[in-house]
Amino acid sequence: AQSVAQPEDQVNVAEGNPLTVKCTYSVSGNPYLFWYVQYPNRGLQFLLKYITGDNLVKGSYGFEAEFNKSQTSFHLKKPSALVSDSALYFCAVRDMVSSASKIIFGSGTRLSIRP
Amino acid sequence: EADIYQTPRYLVIGTGKKITLECSQTMGHDKMYWYQQDPGMELHLIHYSYGVNSTEKGDLSSESTVSRIRTEHFPLTLESARPSHTSQYLCASSEFQISDTQYFGPGTRLTVL
Predict the structure, then answer these.
(1) What span, in angstroms and rounded, lies between the C-alpha atoms of B30 and A111?
(2) Start-to-end CA span in chain B (Å)
């Protein structure tokens, strides 16, 4: 079964420190992976995606994610956190099995950046 | 910012009322989706569409229905709202590409009293 897991419900980081939000996946074949961010009372915003190529993917707002095939991970990272990065982050994987052309979302990780 | 719109943004309504949540996109995307999300929780796919006159049920059973008469428009209807329908409803769209990046609207927060 295809799935994506976000093992941490909440991540707390001090402003200026590096941050990592973890994601692991389980898919058949090559994965298409995504990160989205959701601010309060808003829809999801696309941050970045991995399709093929370089394992380090750069996205919006200074975020990047590292694809690691051997560890089946796609962790989201930022070198220096901002208070404005506080939000709910979703990892997602393209469902390559069903004919429905869907994206499977993780359960979300709440990122809290303290001043 | 994606060109996908949802109205109303907030709706408070009594039990038994019929409601329609509107979703429109100006990107010409073939595929559209409806998700249900309780505040701060995970997303559940309830409906999707590949194009005009195409609608499918998602992973989470829902009493709502959808229609896709025009490419840009994908409304969701509840014939008789109940308190259990209280939730946030997110609409999304994507191109017909293998990568399938989805772009989301701002959501409609529905409260049924």
Answers:
(1) 33
(2) 33
Q: Which residues of A touch B30 (CB under 8 A)?
A: none
pLDDT more than 90, % of chain A: 76
Q: Let me know the angle formed at the C-alpha of B35 by B27 and B59, rounded to the nearest 5 degrees.
A: 120
The answer to whether A105 faces chain B, any CB pair under 8 Å, is yes
Beta carbons of B56 and B47 less than 8 angstroms apart = yes
- Distance from C-alpha of A60 to C-alpha of A53, rounded to nearest angstrom: 18
Is the pLDDT confidence value at B1 over 60?
no
Rounded Cα distance between B45 and B62, Å, is 9
My answer on whether omega of the bond before B75 falls inside 30° of 0, hence cis, is no
Which residue in the set B42, B100, B107 is minimally distant from A107, CB to CB?
Answer: B42
- Is B5 touching A (CB cutoff 8 A)? no
Report the distance separating Cα B31 and Cα B74, nearest Å: 10
pLDDT of residue A28: 81
Phi, psi dihedral angles at A53 (to 5 degrees)? 100, -145
